Amino acid sequence: MEISIDRPAGFVVPDTSAAAGTLDGAAAAFGMSAIVTILFNTLLAWIKDAFDPLNELMGRVTGHHWITHALIDVILFLVLGIVLTRRGYRISGNMLVLGIIAATVIGGGGLLLWFVLF
Predict the structure, then answer these.
(1) DSSP H helical segments within 6-92, as ranges?
(2) 45, 114 in Cβ contact below 8 A?
(3) Which residues, 6+ apart, have CB-to-CB distance to 39 below 8 Å?
(4) Residue 25 region, left (φ>0) first, then alpha (ψ -120 to 50), else beta?
(5) Is residue 110 a part of any domain in this protein?
(6) 88 lies in which domain range?
(7) What confidence score (pLDDT) does residue 118 get?
(8) CB 89 within 8 A of CB 28
(9) Is pLDDT of 52 > 80?
(10) CA angle at 34 for the pair 90 and 16, rounded to the nearest 5°
(11) Residue 13 — pLDDT band, cuts 50, 70, 90?
(12) Residue 2 in 3-state DSSP?
């Protein structure tokens, strides 16, 4: 005996295959771009604070070194996101979330230690 269940119009059965947790397109590309940009932000803060000529140059470009710093971060995020989108970048949703969390903890911790110790 076979049982038939009528589903309401528009009902979607979730995809439980391995590929269901994979992100592609802009979500994957800009997520990875965020990870790279978060870590780059910390690195740039260390370098410009340790190398006064760079800090002064960045200050002259926009009037304040932190404004230039922010613009560089935004440009990196957008350019890398667009490049990765065009290349068809893919990543597991869970890995992307873990990567963003790890980058935030590492970057934030690195900035905290830098400004506390130096």
Answers:
(1) 25-50, 52-62, 65-86
(2) yes
(3) 103, 106, 107
(4) left
(5) yes
(6) 23-117
(7) 83
(8) yes
(9) yes
(10) 35
(11) low
(12) coil
Name the token pair of 61. Answer: 């470009």
Into how many domains does the chain fold?
1
pLDDT tens column, 54-112: 999 999 999 999 999 999 999 999 999 999 999 998 999 999 999 999 999 999 999 99
Q: Judge residue 28's burial from the number of C-beta atoms within 10 Å of its C-beta, 0-12 exposed, 13-18 middle, 19 or more buried.
A: buried
Which residue type sits at 46?
W
Q: Could you tell me if residue 13 is inside a domain?
A: no
The reply to whether 6 falls in a domain is: no
Q: Which residues pair with 97 in a beta bridge?
A: none
Contacts of 59 (CB under 8 A, 6+ apart): 65, 68
- Domain assignment of residue 5, yes or no: no
pLDDT of residue 12: 59
pLDDT at 7: 60
